[in-house]
Amino acid sequence: MENKGEKMYSEEFEFSLDLVKKCGEVIKAAFNAEKKISEKSSPNDLVTETDQLVEKMLIEGLRERFPDTSFIGEESVAGGEKCELTERSTWIIDPIDGTTNFISSNPQICTILGFMVDKEVQFGIVYNPILDQLWTASKGQGAEYNGSKIHVSSCTNLSTALLIQEMGGSSSDQKIEMVNKNLRTFIPKVRSIRAYGSAGINLAYLAMGAVDAYFDCGFHIWDYAAPLLIVTEAGGVGMDITGEKVDYLARRMLAASSQELADQILPNMATVPMER
After folding, report:
1. CA–CA distance from 207 to each of 106, 136, 232 (Å)?
2. φ and ψ at 264, to 5 degrees?
3. Is 111 designated active site?
4. CB 60 within 8 A of CB 83
5. Catalytic residue chosen out of the listed positions 51, 55, 94, 233
6. Is 185 a catalytic residue?
7. 3-class SS of residue 177
8. pLDDT of amino acid 238
9. Is this structure's pTM higher than 0.85?
10. What is the pLDDT of residue 262?
11. For residues 153 and 210, what is the distance between their CA atoms, to the nearest angstrom?
C-alpha cells in the first residue's frame, strides 16, 4: 500500500516506461494495418509479427541497459524458452496482451511489463497505446492512471459487483465446462458480467474502480503478475484461487476490490487444474 518511503528501482522504472511508450508507437502504426498472423498452441492462441517485434525491442533495450537481469517473455516462452522464475531480477513481458483484439483492430489491448526481485513484483506497467491509457504501480507507492492516483471501488457485496469472466474460444471440454459453470453460478448473484479480452486491461480497470472482481484459470505470469500489483497498490486484494498467497506460476488468480467480496467469490468458483 502507499507510503512515503523512497521509490525502489526508480532507474529501472523510468527507463522501462520510456521503452514501453516507444514500443507503443510501433503497435499504433500496426493497429489498422494488415497483420501477419500465426498460430501457436491452437487456433485460439495467436501471435502477430508485431507481438514478436515488440518483445524483441523490449528485451534488447532492457538487456543493453541492465545486462545482469533475466527475462520471461510470452513470445520467447512460446518459441521454446523455459519459463523459470528465480530470485534474480527478472523482467516479465507481454508485448501485446489481447492479441485477438489486436488482430481485429479492437482497442482493448495493452503492453504489460513487470519487474520482479526475489520473486516479488517491484513495479508494474500496463500501457494501452491505442487509447493512450497508462496504469503504473511501484511497491509501497500506490497506483496511478495517466499520472493520477487511483483506488479500487468500495464494493463489498457480490450482489452489487461487476464481475469479469473471460469467455475466449477453447477446444478443451474441461475449460468450456468451467466457463459455463461459472456463468451459471455467478450471473444470478452479481450485478453484471464483463469481459474485455485482455487480463491486463481487466486488472487495470479493477484497480481504477471500473469493475469489482476478476478471476481466471489458464493464463500466465506475464498476464497477471504486473497488473495484480497495480490492483493491490490501489487498495484491492489479490490471491490464489485457494485464498492463499498468489502463485505466479500456477496460472490462476482472484482479484477483488475488497477481502469481503473475495470471500463471497472463493467458495463458488469452478476451476480446472493447470500445468505449471
Report:
1. 22, 10, 8
2. -80, -20
3. no
4. no
5. 94
6. no
7. helix
8. 98
9. yes
10. 98
11. 7
